[in-house]
Design goal:
The protein is an alpha/beta fold and 72 residues long. The chain has one domain. The chain contains two helices and three strands, in the order E-H-E-E-H. Helix 1 links the parallel strand 1 and strand 2. The longest helix is centred in the first third of the chain and has 16 residues. The chain is flat and about 30 Å long. The protein starts with a strand and ends with a helix.
Amino acid sequence: MKKIIHQLSLSAIGGVQRSFIPYLLYVLKKSNFHHSVYSMHDLSDQFIEVKNYHNNINKSLISKIKFFFFLI
């Protein structure tokens, strides 16, 4: 299965975050791809519905390797 990586911060509410959440929930239901969200920040409590969120990729070598592996 192909993977799609979204790289953005969900640590606070802003314009991108407000529009991204409905988009992500829609594609998780309709898409044939596996979606993951990567960030360099912790997930805010306001975005608890987001699954497959990998935070602090700079702090974890394993997460950083996975991120670069999926990009390739």
